[in-house]
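Appendix C. Worked example: Dihydroflavonol-4-reductase
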Amino acid sequence: MIQINKEKPVLVTGANGYVASWLVKRLLEEGIHVHAAVRNPQNEAKILHLKAMAVTAPGKISFFKADLLEPDSYTEAMQGCEVVFHTASPFTSNFKDPQKELIDPAVLGTENVLNSVNKVSSVKRVVLTSSCAAIYTDAIDTINAYGGRLTEEVWNTTASLDYQPYSYSKTLAEKKAWDMAGLQSRWNLVTINPSLVLGPALNTQHTTSESINILKMLGGGEMKMGAPKIGIGIVDVRDVAHAHFNAAFLPSAKGRYITSAYETNFLDMAKALLPKYGRHYPLPTRPLPKWVLLIVGPLANKLFSRKFIQNNVNIPWKADNSKIQRELGIDFLPFTKTMEDAFQNLIDEGIIKAK
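Step 2, the predicted output written as structure tokens:
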């Protein structure tokens, strides 16, 4: 078992990201020195929230310039660190070239970070932000898995460069990490595999999270005629940060961890918001039939291809989250709290407006 010294600094790649910002907050509150690697430390708008955290926390933060596609970019930031949190990776459906915009940053970025890990002798543990997308592509994959639900033993075999390239990028990146980890014995690898991450963002105006885009579709009127019952897993961003923290500092942490609290769908997500927000926001109240989606979905939204609709709509999403509860001690926040806190955050920031 690996013992981590909390007196030593830790590196967080992509430190100003959605999940990473909450992780940095937790680390600073624990009195830890955070080496924050970001693409441009001079962009105050994207790091001001991190600086503000450090003012009142017992920990401290140092910023480093780094880029996923530049070899040795993270080596300086890693000096003296026993833990490396690699959270930096693109999460978007708005792309033109999936190889350039998704695959290369995810896979080459992981390789570059771990090449630096191999050079920096102080590193004992790497915590990689992977995804349930490295385990499955469509909801139908979850119920087709052995035992009828996802476990940490399952790998995604259905994504490709042409179909769900984001899921393909996460699969290739995590496999690259495990391959590199297996070639050495000095440091060990733990992966956190979240489902759809929701909850309040600490830097809402400067995030490109797909999680926020889904909430905008639900609450902004795009789905007011009805929401498709797309099977999906949900987890609170604060729980994901907690999982990263425990994965780093619990000596017994090992392997992959499905990090998902609830099995739900788009309609039930909207229904969780109705009691508090239904009077003032155009939230959907009924399901959008699958046959309607098959006709208009591919025309209205490029994400809703016929294959995607067939494999996800009216199909439950199922995953076993017992390992992370048992080994990392994660007690997930209530579903309604996650939904309401996330939605209120977007209202406060003016991203979603009342009807």
